[in-house]
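Q: Joint fold for the lines below.
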Amino acid sequence: MAKNTNVSLSVIKRLPRYYRFLGDLLQNGIHRISSKELAEIMNLTASQIRQDLNCFGGFGQQGYGYNVAALHGEIANILGLESGFKTILLGAGNLGRAITTHMNFEEKGFRLVGVFDSSPNVVGGTVRDFVVQHTDALGTFCGEYQPVVAILCIPKESAGELVPKLIDYGIKAFWNFSHFDINSAQYPNVVVENVHLGDSMMTLSYQVKELVNPPVKE
Amino acid sequence: MAKNTNVSLSVIKRLPRYYRFLGDLLQNGIHRISSKELAEIMNLTASQIRQDLNCFGGFGQQGYGYNVAALHGEIANILGLESGFKTILLGAGNLGRAITTHMNFEEKGFRLVGVFDSSPNVVGGTVRDFVVQHTDALGTFCGEYQPVVAILCIPKESAGELVPKLIDYGIKAFWNFSHFDINSAQYPNVVVENVHLGDSMMTLSYQVKELVNPPVKE
DNA sequence: TAGATTGTTAATCGATTAACAATC
DNA sequence: TAGATTGTTAATCGATTAACAATC
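A: Joint structure:
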């Protein structure tokens, strides 16, 4: 194990998909799979799968392939899905509430410990099993509970104000649904995973346009 | 214009971000920018910006740079943000409702024309200004309104059942929040933009793990 | 043992960066 | 005109694929 020094982000981003497919195989009672078979199911090359996995260790066996359950477990380990990182969510609007109720935090490495908003209409209400607290209470809360992850479901301007404070309060990672650009050059010891739904939508728009209305060849 | 034959997806995915930053500049009353300045703001290289833009045309002027408003408009055009592609949303649960109310479809190339669900508890209720229809009505609806895009906010199993039908009904593009893997090899004339929130979360988990608990060097 | 399939090295492909002549 | 900055070609870097010896 543990030769994972500086694995590229392209590899990391494929791991959750491996994990999902292996989980499915497991549920279907399949205990063994070769890189060739898995590649076929996942629309990848066998080479890529073997390269990816060998960033972390030799999980297979020559002549046999991979043990599905074992590999599934190894990837869970690599991703840190048992970590239970203490997490706060900022912004209890439509999106924030959907994420709070819709996502399974515990299965994915996180533990939600607080929900915050700045609107008086929302503060004091409940989302799932959380009473929404005012963002003014963040300093005290972080001092006491020391969360490491913040989910940003707030407008751009609020994010601009809150991010420096949160970093000050000890937040180390952001799951960022806002349009605020967290400058990773400015904060080297902070990790950011952006989910820009608007950008994703525009990317789709381009692709639909190309499909429906293809450019004329010269 | 229009030398956009086969632009790589890496380039396309950067366009929405350019669009957002140019919009901000515009709002701040900045009318002109060089690739060098823009690169600084966006944490990119000037080279990359010029390469990216020149996939679509020479929008700049030597010795001057780029006109912000003009470039902003060109990118809107390239992305097809005025297209108003007719779109249906499937699954009026937490996530589906959040997307319906939270996203600005019109600004991003789409027009929402219907919301569907299969649960009797939800069908007949309203989301934003839509009455939720039963998925059984999809065939009739698509025949009449001919939507081209479907947003999938439904469980994996439902997606597995519905996707082939939807393609049959003329749907050409999916914005896929479900965990169902739409096999693009199987459907060559269909475009898919996946948003796997769970995968994104797991990727973040890995990064937090590495940051908080870095691997020991040998 | 023979067959299968891995782990790993080498070759290819694509994307990013650097350099510079063209030109506003 | 001289200075600035583009558009574009060439060089570099990284990621993917192919090949094959190691080995179960």
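Q: Anything notable?
A: The mean pLDDT of chain A is 95. Residues 34-36, 46, 50-51, 53-54, 58, 60-66 of chain A lie near DNA strand C (CB under 10 Å from a C1').
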